[in-house]
Amino acid sequence: MSATTAGTAGTALATETATGSPLSSIDRRKRKHEPTYLMMLFPALGLFSLFITIPAIIGMLFSLTNYSGFGAWKFVGLANFASLSGDTTILGSYWFTIYFAVVTTVLVNVVALLLAIALNAKIKFKTTLRAVFFVPMVLSGIVVAYVFKFLLGTSIPAIATSLGWTGGETSLLASPHYAWLGVVLVTAWQAIPGMLIIYLAGLLSIPGEVYEAASLDGANAVRTFRSITLPLMAGYVVINSVLGFKGFLNAYDIIIGLTGGGPGTSTTSIAMSIFTGFQSGDYAYQMANAVVFFLVTIAISLGQLFFMRGRELNL
Amino acid sequence: MTTLTNSTQRQTTPPAKADRRERVNWKLTGILLLCSLSILLPLYVAIIMPFKTDKQAGSSSGFSLPSPLDFGNFKIAWETVGFPKALFFSVVIAIVAVIGSLVVSSMAAFAIVRNWDHKLYRYSYFYLLAAMFIPFPVVALPQVKLTAILHLDNPVGVGLLHILFGISFNVLLYTAFLRSVPFELEESARLDGCSTWVVFRRIILPLLGPMNATVGIFAFLASWNDFMMPSIITANPAQQTLPVVQQLFSNALTTNYNVAFASYLMAMAPTLIVYVFAQRWVMSGVTQGAIK
Known about the structure:
By secondary structure, chain A is an all-alpha fold. Chain A is about 70% helix and about 0% strand.
């Protein structure tokens, strides 16, 4: 699912992180809980357990077998995990995906924050400009990727050739060393609006008096940004970084449309390698890969939260 | 940047003196207009490309205006990818995902908020929230098996999974909103003898209006634009959605860019058109959720 969805819900979290308020019970009256409530909760819990929790547990068990996707199987212990650690293709996909996610998270957050500040300023055509910057949010990732495949692969080389730029005549996406940059660019293009929403909402939560006081004290633009905007927005930065990073680790749609994982396997993401579990008949092996991916996702998310927590400022 | 951030905050404060001091920041407007080209230029190419002839599409960098105009590409693309069928399945999945998200998440959130002092509900909340950290690829392989066994390896199953992968965000949004709804609002109805169901339908659902819009818009966009889940879960290629058919027929499409772009533009058109006309409404719905 896109980072956009992650985004909005994220703010709900962001407000909780930012204000530091505990999840307090609003309803102080202690009433007996009725069966009706149970019926209201059940669809969510039941469907969720059936379609996510149970498959997750079964999948994890199968990562300890030699199951190929069909037919007989037996337990093989941690053999799959042992072979994973020596598989250069898999390790390459981890290296690419994490590297890509780090660069994209930083790029998207920086651009979205600056854009939010600019779009919140006293500018002309404010509504129109905002509307334009939000357009990528309503488009499908794979279609966007196909459009950019043409732009990066055909348009830019054609323009570069006619202008005589050296180095620009070949497609960025054809280079094993730089194709990942194309993936970063297109992913960022699509993910910026989602984070922009959160940052715009965050800016609205900063009272104007704070800026007034800063300008009376003679703070310049850079100082105001560093000492006021950034610390007060830190809760939003944390949420955008954690959810954004988590979303980028799942990179799939845009890569399929843009490079198909190539050239070679230089832009093959973890999700892409897991999905080969069916075609190549090593279901159990790719399930082990999925388990490792899950642990990596959790570890990185917790690490980010731990590292970034307590850095935000409250008014 | 001081002045920039300053000004909007001031807009809400009445004194005219402060307003007069702030002038339109033309330099920044110019920079933003330039930046907006990064959005508009790709869109421009995507929109003009389908109107070009094979010859023009194959020879230029893509930025030149189409001359002569060729409207035939849409017809070819329409037939190549089977546009009406793909559109139909996209709509089916989106309807299941949107209605399901609204109903399942709002009911669960209501039950959770009203019974927060109950362990079962509190733990359920964190259980559902934990899904935020289970990415689809992790459970994809066993899910393909499961949906095949249950005969849900079709658009309905994909819609169902869209509901479930959005559930943590939606429950989070709804509970955050419902926490601010005072119990007194429903108390009088309860004294009049209304059941919990009636309270939920008559009082809570109307109150959730703006939140429903937010959840609905996001559930729709996530579902409509998704490529990963339908391409993995749906077994029959003849039941694929608009984004997926672009990939399924990519070999047939790459021979002529104008035909390929006609197909891309038709795939983008529904959300793009709705966004252009309902832009204000969409934006307010979206920011509503962000502020909550």
